[in-house]
Each structure stands twice: as structure tokens, then as C-alpha cells.
Amino acid sequence: MSTQIHKKSRTRRVCKSIVIISLSLSIIFILIFSINPCYHTTQILVPNFNLNYYKNSQTTPTNISDIVFGIGGTIKMWQTRKHYVESWWHPNVTRGFLFLDEAPIQHLPWPPTSPPVRVSSNHKGIPYTIRMARLIRETFNAKNSSVRWYVMADDDTIFFLENLVNMLKKYDYEGYYYIGVNSESIISNSLFSFNMGFGGAGFALSYPLAEALAKNLDVCLNKYGKLHGSDHILQSCVSDFGVSLTQEKGFHQIDMHGDISGLLSAHPQTPLVSLHHLDAVEPLFPAMNRQQSLNHLMTSAKIDQSRILQQSIGYHHPKNWSFSLSWGYSVHIYEKTLPSSFLQVPLQTFGEWQKGAKPAFMMNTRGLSSDPCEIPHVFYFHSVEESGGGWRREVVKTYVRRLPRRLSPCLANGNHSADYLDMIHVISPVKRHVTEGSRRECCDIIQVEKGNSTTIKLRPCMKYELIG
Ligand SMILES: *[C@@H]1O[C@H](CO)[C@@H](O)[C@H](O)[C@H]1NC(C)=O
Ligand SMILES: *[C@@H]1O[C@H](CO)[C@@H](O)[C@H](O)[C@H]1NC(C)=O
Ligand SMILES: *[C@@H]1O[C@H](CO)[C@@H](O)[C@H](O)[C@H]1NC(C)=O
Ligand SMILES: *[C@@H]1O[C@H](CO)[C@@H](O)[C@H](O)[C@H]1NC(C)=O
Ligand SMILES: *[C@@H]1O[C@H](CO)[C@@H](O)[C@H](O)[C@H]1NC(C)=O
Ligand SMILES: *[C@@H]1O[C@H](CO)[C@@H](O)[C@H](O)[C@H]1NC(C)=O
Fold first, then answer.
1. pTM to 2 decimal places
2. Domains (range + CATH), the chain
3. Transmembrane segments in this chain: where (predicted)?
């Protein structure tokens, strides 16, 4: 009796569930097919099987061949931008395309040192931003065999390829990634988005995300085509896929003016990935033009790219001097013992992107005071040599003073002028420096005075060592 009642109620419950399920299914069905698309183009929907669950752990680490670059440029500017692209492009190694708005007839024959060129399709009468936003689809459709990452950039973006590859290695290319950086300028971020990968700095899209964007681009362009900036259109679209920006501070938009040596001398503790807007700022090295400066930095970055611009701080206590090294770029000497935390704040040698904006920057800066204790003696990268062999191989970089400091000595910490110095040698091991999860490298001032030069040697910091 009781079992029968039980059975009956169970049957009733099952029936009820079936009714509920079929009702909900039909509601979903009606909902899907009754929604009028707001746009003329339709979204492309395909079931998403998350490949990560079945991932083959045997995949090889990402290398340069797994990346395809999409570079946007214009015929008008190509002559002046060409050397930027050629400074990092490696023919037969880097894959990708330069997209121009017109056939580069005046530049033919097209040199093998430049990326293969394509003319953007169907862009006549279409705004520049739309043409640039479409590049992701054009790049995606142009080359898609065994690609892990699409890296989008402008014709005045400069990449440090080894660092770019090592940065991308950290991420799962089968996941959904949008990796880049926002602007240094608060106002630029507020006008566009704080969550946007700025196009000039360059940004990386993992294959699945690039594919989703390419397939749905028309929907995005209809929705967001009126926004200023192709990078903002893309960011809005990426956002609609439920993907956020992964910030990597090695990318640099350089929305600043003037002398950016202050920034380059106190780079964030992460490998340098890109630079941009070098036309908008003074040459990176004094007494050189922009092109020579860039070539000079690239020469420096050729040997041990992992260390380029990495900051190390050391002290020479008998003279109360502080040394701040930006590897491969500059050495600053202060005639005072200043805390490492203070020296990691960039000197504001540069100006705002938009004059008068306050606060101007997405970072703390140190104003330029007239206090001789806080104004450094500045030495810039001059030349590089390798010495020794095998495990004893070392790199010796020499930095020279370009201009006298023209200030009286700092008296607050004794009276130890560094005016006589005109050269600094920095010795470092030939071994890739991994920044991820490690500390800045420590350095010793191993020879403070030999003629007019000083020698510094980099070493790993000791276990409990406090830099100061
Ligand atoms: C780069 O990785 C691919 C696999 O994605 C591999 O086929 C290729 O040989 C690698 N190339 C280099 C230069 O290591
Ligand atoms: C690239 O490869 C092609 C074919 O292998 C070769 O002819 C050409 O010289 C290479 N270009 C450069 C710049 O190395
Ligand atoms: C690349 O993608 C396009 C369009 O999705 C397709 O027609 C083409 O066959 C693909 N090419 C390769 C080499 O996979
Ligand atoms: C270094 O600075 C401290 C603090 O100002 C001072 O007491 C000390 O005498 C200075 N040392 C030398 C060698 O000048
Ligand atoms: C600092 O040292 C220099 C050279 O040793 C000397 O000429 C100068 O008078 C000193 N200044 C002060 C304020 O002691
Ligand atoms: C060091 O510099 C001073 C002045 O700049 C110069 O007179 C002197 O000859 C230099 N010494 C050496 C060893 O180069």
C-alpha cells in the first residue's frame, strides 16, 4: 500500500519534471527565435568546448614562429615610419603583415627587410578607425596555420621580440587572452578606457579570442564603430566576449612629451616589451638623432634582452653615493644615500601628453628639484663588450657622461663630488635574468676610482639582503 502510494507520487513527480523541462525548453526556444537582431549582421554562435580540459601537456613552449603580427600603417607616413618597423622586424623569422591604405607603388620594389605588405580591403570612403579595427580580421584571415598569438601594432611601435616571446610563454594560448597596457596618461585612459590595451603600445590576442573577434567583427563595428580609436572599438568588443585586459607593464604607449629618460631609467620590474611615440619625444640618447638613438638602444638590447632597462640600485658608503642603473641605458649617481624605494620612482624629466592635466600620470614621479643632493650625475650607454668564456662569460657595458652636471656638490652627506667621473663600467653575467618571482639584481661598486671611471658588478641579492 505504502509502496504503491510512493510509486504513484514518484510517477507524478517525474511527469511534473518532464512538463517543467519541456516548458522551459520551449520558452528558451521561443526566446532565441523571437529576438529580432538589432543589427543587420548576425552574431556567429558555435558551442564552445573548452579545449583546456583536454589539453595536451606536451606542447612546445611558444616561440617567435607562433606569433603573427598585424601592423597598421598609411602610405603617407610609411617613409618616416619604415625604420621603426625595420628596427625590430626579422625577415624570415617574424610572421605577419603591414596593412597600408594604398598600394605602395612609389616604394617598389618592396624590400625584403620590411614586412610583407597588403592593402586593406574595401576601405574606400570608410573612416580610418574602422579600417584599423578591421585589421584583426584581415590578419586572422591572411595567415592562420599554427598560430598561437596575434600581436597588433602601429607602424611606430617598436618591439623587443625576445621579451615579447618570453612574456607570452607565461600564458595559455588556448585560453582567452587580451594582453597589453593602458596609457601612462590619466586623461587618455579616462577618454578611452582604463581597461584598454592601447594600440600604439601593441597588444596580443590569443588565437581563440582573435578568432571570435574576426568572426563577429561586423556586429562589433555596427555597435561601436562610432567610437574614437580602433583600439577602443576592439576593447569594447573584447569586453562583450567577457574578456578583460591582462596588463603587462613592459608594453609602453608613451603618451608623454619631452625627455623620457626619467621613465627609462626607472622602468617597472618587468621585461621591456614595446616602445611607441618616439616621434613625439626627444631622442632617447643625447647627441644623437631619433633614428641613431633607436639603433643604439637596439644594439644594447641585442645582448641579453632580458636585462634591458632593468633597474639595480647600489651604494658606495665611504662617499655616501647612491647608484641607480638602468641596464643597457643609463647610470645615475647621487651624492647622497637615498632609499631604494625613492630611486625606483621615475624622475619627471618628461611632460604631460595633454598640457596642464593634473594628476597627469598613472605613476608616481619625482619632480626635478634644484637640490644638488637629489639631482643625479647621468651617464648613458655607450658601448658593450663580452669577456671571458664558458661559465665565466661576462658582459661589460660602458656608460659615459654626455653633459657636466653644473651644480655644486651635495653637502648634506659630506662633500663628495662625483664631477670627476666620466665613465662607468657595468659587469653582468651572460645569463637570462628572470624577473618573474625574483628580486631586482643587487650590485656592488667594485672599483670606485680608476682614473675617472667606476666599475659596478651585478650579482643576485643575498637571502635576507635589504638594499640600502
Ligand atoms: C616553434 O614552435 C613550433 C611549434 O609550435 C615548432 O614547430 C617550431 O619548430 C618551433 N621553432 C623554433 C625556432 O623553435
Ligand atoms: C628569406 O628566405 C628566402 C628563401 O629561403 C631567402 O631567399 C632570403 O634571402 C631570406 N631573406 C633574408 C632577409 O634572410
Ligand atoms: C584560414 O582561414 C580562412 C577563413 O577562415 C580559411 O578559408 C582558410 O582555409 C584558412 N587557411 C589555413 C591555412 O588554415
Ligand atoms: C654620510 O652621511 C652621514 C649622514 O649625513 C654623515 O653622518 C656621514 O659623516 C657621511 N659620511 C661621509 C664619509 O661623509
Ligand atoms: C668641498 O670640497 C672641495 C674639494 O675638496 C673644496 O674645494 C670645497 O671648498 C668643499 N666645500 C665645502 C663647503 O666644504
Ligand atoms: C680625469 O678628468 C680630469 C678632468 O675632467 C682630467 O683632467 C684628467 O686628466 C682625467 N684623468 C684621467 C686618468 O683620465
1. 0.87
2. 59-247 (3.90.550.50), 310-459 (2.70.130.10)
3. 14-35
